[in-house]
């Protein structure tokens, strides 16, 4: 099957790129920790501007996106907000920061993707943002992990930031466990539930489930595993009965588990169909029939799996793309949309309610100057969906006699699709 290219997803990208509004980012980030000279910075900024101007003339071909925007930052995760706009969580990443130093960012747009405001929160180390929710009071909760120096022996920790509706921090919590992922939801009771995984003394990894109250104070912690196996939780949803359903991987298998409202394990399932060397999950969403849809992938294939409310497999579908699928949701017509990335390209896959492929599409082109990935997909109030991800720019240049290909800039991108999107096939990526 030929794979269409949605090049128009990047056609108007530079229209909303703006520098961040800093919240007490310290001068030391621009001083002693910068390992490049002012001359190199100026040169790279010039290259970045030239690259973005060129990108802005890209043709609008073979795609039915309603709009597409980029914003300062890296690794976007999006939600639609109560006002019809969008909030995106990520991390800062540009030539003004060394690769090791990253901080959380929060971006707010209107319903057309136009930037309303952005915030950058102070942090030390390498911060990765994993998830965002709009909270019941109209604010936002962001979660992720922080890798603190030294680089050769880093210290991991999970964090949770709560802001008001304008992105002003209300509280910020760091959890002492060495969490290597940290995904958050807000439950129907107004409290927050987080999951992730941490290494253990048996050279394995344990899944961690935590609940904190509306002020970020820890209520309880549950740990699953405790042996040399690697039990890796990546995300969760609240079940209809008030419990929690966690997805991820158990060594080479896909893994799904259900707890009650107090975090006590009720059941656990693993998945590994024939023909796959590995079968991990990366994302979960609830379905209209009270079951679950899961997405995953390895270097050879992407897949989605449909289960009932007890985790029993109803069907498994390979997606005909060599992509690591990172997010999945059910669409308004009962079908599914999954997104991911591989080999410097972002991928989108649409199926019907039985998992039968309707179309797949790739974003961007495989070349030395641009790479893209898709991190999250969410439904919109009009029945369509938005995809959030990262667009990286590179520019070969010559500095002091050396030929280098620096990262000129990373941008969060957001693209809006109508449900009836059906791009024209133009060849394989």
Task: Offer a few descriptive terms.
mainly beta; Methylamine Dehydrogenase, Chain H; four-stranded antiparallel beta sheet; 30 strands
Characterization of the model:
The protein is mainly beta. The protein has a single domain (7-417), classed as 7 Propeller (Methylamine Dehydrogenase, Chain H), CATH 2.130.10.10. 4% of the residues lie in helices and 49% in strands. It is built from one helix and 30 strands. The protein has one helix at 38-55; strands at 67-72, 74-80, 86-91, 104-109, 115-120, 126-134, 140-148, 155-163, 169-175, 183-186, 192-199, 205-212, 218-224, 231-238, 244-250, 253-259, 265-271, 281-286, 292-297, 302-307, 313-318, 324-330, 336-342, 345-351, 357-363, 370-379, 385-394, 397-399, 402-404, 407-417. The strands form eight sheets. The protein has a four-stranded antiparallel β-sheet with strand order 1-30-27-26. The longest helix has 18 residues, at 38-55. It is globular, with a radius of gyration of 21 Å. The relative contact order is 0.14.
Q: How many extended strands?
A: 30
- The CATH homologous superfamily is termed YVTN repeat-like/Quinoprotein amine dehydrogenase
Number of helical regions: 1
> Structurally, how many domains make up the residues?
1
What structural class do you assign from the helix and strand content? mainly beta
Instruction: Using the coordinates shown, work out and report the CATH topology.
Output: Methylamine Dehydrogenase, Chain H
Shape: globular
Q: Largest sheet, order of strands side by side?
A: 1-30-27-26
Largest sheet: 4 strands, antiparallel
Low-pLDDT stretches are: 1-63, 398-407, 423-429
Q: Report the portion of residues in β strands.
A: over 45%
Main CATH class: Mainly Beta
Supply Rg: 21 Å
CATH architecture: 7 Propeller
Helix content: under 10%
Averaging pLDDT over every residue, what do you get? 80
Q: In angstroms, what separates the terminal alpha carbons?
A: 11 Å
